[in-house]
Amino acid sequence: MYQEYVEQQKMRILYLLLIGIVQMQCTEADSYPETPPPGELSSECTENAYGTLLESSTTIAERLSVSAENVLTRVAEVRSFQAQYATENWAVEQSPLGGETLLTRTIEFSGGEIREQQKEGCPAWLDIEATVSVETEDGSFYERWPIVIRFDYDQNISILGYFDPKEISGTFEILSYLRPAAPERVSGRFIESYDEYYSYNITGSIDISTSGSAGQDGVGISSNQRTITWSTESEVDRK
Fewer CB within 10 Å: C terminus or N terminus of the chain? Predict the structure, then answer.
């Protein structure tokens, strides 16, 4: 019985790490968009869920009554924002720190998998595999990452992509690690959330997450830093 409890706790910790939830008090630089990104549906629904592969982007998802093409019309485009860098180091010491730059992101769909996901007793959601390109005017980011676009039962749209911070092509740098100082895992993610399907309100960020042990007692901690953020309020061009 105790071993089962330990295994359950391990799985819970792993889940929290994957979705980037900070396990300790965070500064303003750690705040998240209000709309949960993909992966932050309840674990009871996402664990062991199964999906139906849709034939094309025009195929209507049976339980959601929407096609991938409908969702892509909302997000697959070029948009530019006056983005803000974090003004305070938390998980890492980053460069640049503070200030603004023009950020342009382009979301493209090139025939990736489209799945209507479901689990018995849970609402369905639609996952669309796509790609995002991110370029900043100052050269800090010049990237291309795989992403998943999620349309959920509440008609929210969330976009999430993971990447290795060591493989950033731009000039953005992690100068040192802070919490923890010697992390066992370091990951990056692109995240963008629409508060609802028919809204143009967007909140986005590029995050760096760290996790590992801290101190002689070996207590595990995880931290997240929103290295750069943008929103509809800072949009400067709509192409």
Answer: N
Please state the pTM of the whole predicted model.
0.80
The residue among 188, 34, 192 whose CA lies nearest residue 106 is 192
Partnered with residue 205 across adjacent β-strands are: 191, 229
Q: Give the integer Cα–Cα distance in Å for 90 and 210.
A: 10
| Average pLDDT of span 61-70 | 94
Q: Decide: 154 and 141 in contact? Cβ < 8 Å.
A: no
Label residue 206 exposed, middle or buried (CB < 10 Å: 0-12, 13-18, 19+).
Answer: buried
Largest CA distance in the chain: 58
- Sequence-distant (6+) residues with CB within 8 A of 81 are 102, 103, 104, 105, 204, 230, 231, 234, 235, 236
178 contact partners, CB below 8 Å, separation of at least 6: 89, 90, 91, 92, 93, 223
Q: Is 179:29 a contact under the CB 8 Å cutoff? A: no
Does 180 sit behind a cis peptide bond, omega within 30 degrees of 0 on the bond before it? yes
Number of H helices, E strands in the chain: 3, 15
Question: What mean pLDDT comes out for the span 191-212?
Answer: 86
Question: Minimal CA–CA distance to 228: which of 41, 94, 55?
Answer: 94
DSSP state of 233: G
Q: Other C-beta atoms within 10 Å of 100: how many? A: 17
Look at residue 21 in the predicted model and tell me its pLDDT.
37
Domain ranges in the chain are 2-238
